[in-house]
Sequence to fold (225 residues):
Amino acid sequence: MGKNKESDFPDEYRNGFAMFLGCRIDLSARPLIPRPETEFWVERAIGDLKNLKRSGARALDIFSGSGCAGIAVAKNLPGIRVDFSDIDPGAVGQIKINIRENNICPELVNAFEGGFFDKIPKGILYDAILANPPYIDPARIGQVQRSVLDYEPHQALFSGNGGLEAIEIFLAQAGNFLRPEGFIYLEFDPSQKRRIAGIIREKKYSSFQFFKDQFSRWRFVKIIN
Fold:
């Protein structure tokens, strides 16, 4: 990893925050910087949650990082219960800061420190799970921007098995934490679309549909339990 240049230092870290769907996301612990591609699909997920015809809806932001996805859900849908899960204790602390910064009702949110679903209490079922896992193939490290590689957390970026290891583990477990007809929004790299379709079929989810982001690249999939 080459010598850091001041010009490579991300503006979001320099400013200490990023905006995400109208929420001010504190980045003082330097979690993964929220991306506009993620903002695009989270807005769609919020719309789907808004259209649910039942009270007491509950969502999970997994691989939470800064918590931007779950914070946006909670901010835009007052009254919904939102849980967060991340293996990094620093990220969990960052999520708690962002809960306070955005005036989210503390009684409606929980932040769990653990990998995947390890710390989610048994019996909880979600209407929606929003997942932005690490999905960059380590073999592509030379293609990653220097500002990302030098400053953002590698644990949130890279995953084994061609970038699919975390996605495979997640999809093997997620169905057990979804209500019937509950849904998943999952972000991925466009090159992984075909392989992800195979994993979803293997795990026997009811249905799925891939979508492009605002830059016309395959970026996320909606999966129905």
